[in-house]
Write a structure and sequence with these properties.
This protein has 328 residues and is of the alpha/beta class. It contains 13 helices and 9 strands. The N and C termini lie close together (12 Å). The structure holds phosphoric acid mono(formamide)ester and norvaline. Norvaline (NVA) binds next to helix 6.
Length: 328
């Protein structure tokens, strides 16, 4: 399979076989890392990481994966470059494309990362946009495969705001890989109609299903994976917290939901997560609205059914696979 020179912007651009190949490569690179086998496949290359939004996992994954592959890495923080303010995306792409072998972008609209890729002349990797978070899905699918031994036929339920990057990307990923995907949310939080139709057609080809359910007890019956995300995403205004808490509290992943799914079900979350008051924002929101946890209870987050840290580790192995596949 030939990925060389290709950008990784959204899962819709890749076939089932290609996604499978990236997950398998990640698994191989994970094994090599754990067994101390060097894998400096991109020795001498350099990459630039553009972050217009903050990050812990994605930035560290690109950096560590870059070093493990033998590359030099430059991090551009949300304030530290000319991007957007004094220099257009097209100009930035043409400058960085002459200095670097690959560029990661995290920021706002999907059209920005698409434009960057159009002009850069080197692979561009999407580290999260408002619409999609494709490297997160590779990590989640590697984790599901490690846990259940397969992806096809897995009953995957996503609870919460399904119109943003995580909901959209899970829907595309599940459709591509033949999982049974259920969105569990109030109707106004269902993904965009056109994307749903596109994914339904893809799911049909790959033996999966896409279902929409407003009742959490119906949605999570027989679920094998229950995933959620923060109720207010980066770039959204603080003023919407009140509405989101009111709308989405019935869709919180708690013990009742996990018990309904059964003891073999696992809990997943891309992180960071509001499961306690041990963060500045968690404290602020907690005090303002009189709550101690949001999209997931601390009990579920800390339970043996939670595989969130294995999922977080897999960000690095899967991002490494994407870079290695597209650079060499
Ligand atoms: N899951 C994820 O993308 O985390 P960061 O925002 O820390 O990169
Ligand atoms: N939906 C979240 C995902 C964070 C990894 C956000 O965009 O903030």
């Amino acid at each position: 399979m030939d990925f060389k020179g290709k950008s990784f912007l959204k899962l819709l651009d890749f076939s089932k076989a290609e996604i499978e190949c990236l997950i398998d490569l990640a698994s191989e690179l994970k094994y090599k890392k754990k067994s101390g086998v060097p894998h400096r496949l991109c020795e001498g290359k350099n990459i630039a990481l553009i972050f217009e939004k903050t990050s812990t996992r994605t930035r560290c994954s690109f950096e560590v994966a870059g070093y493990d592959l033998g590359m030099g890495v430059t991090y551009l923080d949300p304030q530290g470059s000319q991007i957007g303010k004094k220099e257009s995306i097209a100009d930035t792409a043409r400058v960085l494309g002459r200095m670097y072998d690959g560029i990661e972008y995290r920021g706002f609209g999907q059209e920005i990362v698409e434009e960057l890729s159009k002009y850069a002349g080197v692979p561009v990797w999407n580290g999260l946009t408002n619409e999609f978070h494709p490297t997160q899905i590779l990590a989640d699918f590697l984790t599901i495969k490690e846990h259940f031994g397969k992806l096809e036929g897995i009953n995957f339920v996503y609870m919460g705001d399904a119109r943003y990057n995580m909901g959209n990307s899970y829907m595309v990923g599940c459709a591509k890989m033949g999982l049974n995907f259920t969105v569990c949310a109030p109707e106004k939080y269902f993904p965009d109609k056109a994307l749903i139709e596109e994914c339904q057609a893809i799911a049909k080809q790959n033996g999966g299903t896409i279902t929409f359910e407003t009742d959490p007890m119906i949605a999570t019956k027989n679920a094998q994976v229950i995933a959620t995300d923060v109720w207010v995403s980066m770039g959204e205004p603080d003023s919407i917290w009140e509405e989101r808490i009111k709308d989405l509290m019935p869709y919180q992943v708690n013990k009742k939901i996990m018990d309904n799914a059964g003891e073999k079900a696992v809990f997943m979350h891309c992180l960071p997560s509001f499961h306690d008051l041990n963060t500045t924002l968690g404290k602020q929101i907690g005090e303002k609205f009189g709550i101690t946890e949001m999209e997931v209870t601390n009990e579920v987050f800390e339970s043996s059914q939670s595989i969130v840290f294995q999922e977080a580790e897999n960000r690095m192995h899967t991002i490494k696979a994407v870079m290695a596949a597209t650079l060499v």
